[in-house]
Design a protein that fits this description.
It is built from five helices and twelve strands. Helices cover 26% and strands 29% of the residues. The relative contact order is 0.17. The strands form two sheets. Strands 6, 7, 8, 9, 10, 11 and 12 form a seven-stranded antiparallel β-sheet that branches. Strands 1-2-3-5-4 form a five-stranded antiparallel β-sheet, covered by helices on one side. By secondary structure, it is of the alpha+beta class. A hairpin with a 4-residue loop joins strand 4 and strand 5 (81-85). It has two domains: 6-87, Phosphorylase Kinase, domain 1 (2-Layer Sandwich); 88-211, D-amino Acid Aminotransferase, Chain A, domain 1. It starts with 5 loop residues before the first strand and ends in a 17-residue tail after the last helix.
Length: 254
């Protein structure tokens, strides 16, 4: 078998050249990846996490494709790999927040778990050396990372993803506090459009277990181990591979 050419390697994934022009193979590693929305998700490895994230991201991306939200996902190849469309990634992470948590609570002094009056969209410049700082639309447009039309389209995409994910999670007893996505540009001839790229998995979401909340509806004060969030989410969504097991009765954490 010919050796595949590596295109990019990050904390949680490796991208290889795909079998056809304009495609890539996305390989999910067991290491973690923090995001502005969920910085507490560290880079610690958890055996089997890459397999679960591959299945979970397939579930969410395929679901988005089915309702007309374009993504880079084409199909899952095996337990750890997906075939995806090649896209020019906009260097801005889009974070949607439904409840106050993490950095937002710290910055604005809003108690953790407070419902926000509406989903709030934030932007973070995608640069690990700078710890992905919060930026405004003015920064994005001034520095040429995206145009105003791009930003309008990114917000529309992000809010549609939020509606989909919130509904899916609520259906299995999970509250989607916040999440982040990456957006890429693809071209169909001379026509450019934006799509959801990268992945959607517990690495990029803050999830609270509604089956274990206190009476006031706040997240459980003593969440379980980080590794269990992947297994429990996959189990509830019905996408848990039969050969991946973790401790029984895990509790989702933020």
């Amino acid at each position: 078998m010919a050796r595949r050419k590596k295109v990019y390697e990050g904390k949680a994934k490796i991208l290889y050249e795909g079998p056809e022009p304009g495609t890539l193979i996305q390989y999910f590693k067991d290491e973690g990846a923090a995001s502005p929305a969920t910085p507490e998700v560290g880079a610690a490895a958890s055996e089997g996490k890459g397999v679960l994230n591959n299945r979970l991201s397939e579930f969410f991306m395929a679901g988005l494709n089915s309702i007309g939200v374009p993504t880079h996902f084409i199909r899952r190849i095996n337990m750890r790999e997906q075939l995806v469309r090649m896209a020019e990634i906009i260097p801005v992470e889009v974070v949607v927040r439904n409840f106050a948590a993490g950095d937002l609570s710290t910055r604005l002094g809003i108690p953790e778990g407070t419902p926000l009056p509406r989903p709030i969209v934030e932007y973070y410049y995608k640069d690990a050396r700078l710890n992905s700082p919060l930026v405004s639309e003015e920064h994005i447009i001034a520095f040429g990372w995206a145009s105003q039309q791009d930003l309008d389209d990114m917000i529309a995409l992000a809010l549609r993803v939020n509606d989909f994910l919130s509904g899916v999670m609520m259906g299995v007893g999970i509250r989607l506090a916040d999440f982040r996505i990456e957006v890429g540009r693809i071209w169909d001839g001379d026509f450019m459009r934006l799509i959801v790229a990268d992945e959607i998995s517990p690495d990029s979401c803050r999830l609270w277990d509604l089956r274990g909340v206190v009476e006031r509806g706040e997240p459980a004060p003593e969440p379980g181990p980080l590794a269990d969030v992947y297994t429990e989410l996959a189990r509830r969504l019905g996408v848990l591979p039969s050969n991946v097991t973790h401790a029984p009765k895990p509790t989702l954490i933020n």
